[in-house]
């Protein structure tokens, strides 16, 4: 759903840029509370994983594909404020290095793909975990439904932005119907990927899933033939081996590199939902060439490398490396700022 340059007029692009900048400022402040010794080491990895999985377009209809947006996944794993930052880092890397998503449309893309998806997904997720049984399976189910709803929400948001600042004279009703229809299907893919990933992390390290905190069931004791809650004794100590994030971090990074460097070659080549709707309804007539179209990594290929498989694989590996480095630097700085603000000297 990356919006290219030219789809949205300059005033609306500027307005969404201001909105995105304000949301990022709020997210930076909120992330200081979310990024602790558990989430901080993983936030950069989550950004890299989202980058890798976004390269895996999957078919959703004849001649149309979809890909992960990632807002729901990031919000549930590392928190909503940190999640906005994760997806924003991915969008920034894609726009600058890979000419994917216009630079003048960066505010539109952050608003639509980072802010809307994360806010909607986390609101749905928190509402569901409050009414579902307090189990790990409930977290996975809530993740599925939250991700499912976040994608058509982003489609609605794009339609509203286009209704305000679109650069072609098209029927907004037809655009809305087409966008929502195809992105409901894409949402199913998003939901499956999100639920599988959250479920996998919960299975090995439930303490690292931000959205699963506080969901452990109280121990029950049988007293006089009836089950009652055991007295609270505080959280059980976590073994030193479990406290280490290294194994999970390495596994996640290797998985991201394999997905971006190898599996991405088998992704669907069909246009994604927005591209298909734009082509069908004439929206793409005003699209402009990307300012980074001559980038050595434009279109997810390495310039002057003729072998398509090798070119795409190298670009994917570079993208994962750059994203995990940039994301880790951002989140380390935010985490350090939190530590400084809570120190006795401060």
Describe it for me?
With 346 residues, the chain is mainly alpha-helical. It is built from eleven helices and four strands; from the N terminus they run ααββαααααββαααα. It has helices at residues 10-34, 40-54, 71-78, 80-97, 106-131, 136-165, 172-204, 240-243, 246-261, 273-281, 308-342; strands at 58-61, 64-66, 220-223, 226-229. The strands form two sheets. It has a two-stranded antiparallel ribbon with strand order 1-2. Strand 1 and strand 2 form a beta hairpin. Helix 2 (40-54) crosses helix 4 (80-97), helix 3 (71-78) crosses helix 5 (106-131) and helix 3 runs parallel beside helix 7 (172-204). The protein is globular, with a radius of gyration of 21 Å. The model is unreliable at 232-242 (pLDDT under 50).
How is the topology of this model organized?
Blueprint: H1 10-34, H2 40-54, E1 58-61, E2 64-66, H3 71-78, H4 80-97, H5 106-131, H6 136-165, H7 172-204, E3 220-223, E4 226-229, H8 240-243, H9 246-261, H10 273-281, H11 308-342
Antiparallel strand pairs: 1-2, 3-4
Strand content: under 5%
Which parts are unreliable, with pLDDT below 50 for 5 consecutive residues or more? 232-242
N-C termini distance: 43 Å
Count of runs of 4 or more consecutive helical residues: 11
What percentage of residues falls in helices of 4 or more residues?
A: 55-70%
User: Structural class, please?
Assistant: mainly alpha
Major sheet details: 2 strands, antiparallel
Overall 3D form: globular
Instruction: Report the mean per-residue pLDDT as an integer.
Output: 89
Number of strands: 4
User: C-alpha Rg, in Å?
Assistant: 21 Å
SSE topology string: HHEEHHHHHEEHHHH
What strand order characterises the main sheet? 1-2
């Amino acid at each position: 759903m990356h919006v290219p340059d030219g789809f949205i007029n300059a005033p609306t692009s500027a307005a969404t840029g201001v909105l995105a900048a304000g949301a990022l400022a709020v997210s930076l402040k909120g992330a200081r509370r979310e990024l602790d010794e558990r989430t901080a080491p993983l936030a950069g990895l989550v950004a890299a994983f989202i980058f890798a999985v976004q390269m895996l377009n999957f078919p959703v209809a004849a001649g149309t594909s979809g890909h992960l947006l990632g807002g729901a996944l990031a919000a549930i794993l590392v928190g909503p404020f940190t999640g906005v930052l994760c997806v924003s880092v991915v969008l920034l890397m894609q726009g600058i290095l890979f000419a994917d998503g216009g630079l003048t449309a960066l505010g539109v893309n952050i608003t639509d793909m980072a802010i809307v998806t994360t806010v909607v997904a986390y609101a749905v997720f928190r509402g569901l975990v409050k009414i579902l049984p307090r189990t790990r399976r409930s977290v996975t189910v809530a993740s599925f439904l939250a991700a499912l709803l976040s994608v058509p929400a982003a489609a609605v948001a794009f339609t509203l932005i286009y209704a305000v600042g679109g650069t072609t004279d098209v029927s907004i009703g037809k655009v809305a119907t087409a966008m929502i229809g195809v992105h409901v299907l894409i949402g199913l893919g998003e939901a499956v990927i999100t639920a599988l990933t959250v479920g996998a992390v919960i299975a090995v390290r439930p303490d690292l899933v931000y959205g699963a905190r506080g969901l452990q069931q109280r121990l029950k004791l049988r007293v006089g033939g009836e089950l009652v809650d055991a007295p609270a004794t505080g959280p059980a100590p976590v073994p030193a081996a479990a406290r280490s994030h290294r194994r999970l971090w390495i596994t996640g990074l290797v998985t991201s590199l394999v997905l971006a460097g190898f599996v991405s070659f088998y992704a669907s080549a069909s246009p994604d939902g927005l591209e298909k709707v734009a082509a069908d309804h004439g929206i793409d007539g005003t699209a402009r060439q990307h300012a980074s179209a001559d980038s050595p990594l434009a279109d997810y290929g390495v310039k002057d490398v003729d072998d398509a498989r090798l070119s795409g694989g190298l670009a994917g590996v570079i993208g994962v490396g750059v994203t995990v480095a940039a994301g880790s630097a951002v989140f380390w700085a935010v985490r350090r700022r939190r530590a400084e603000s809570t120190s006795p000297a401060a």
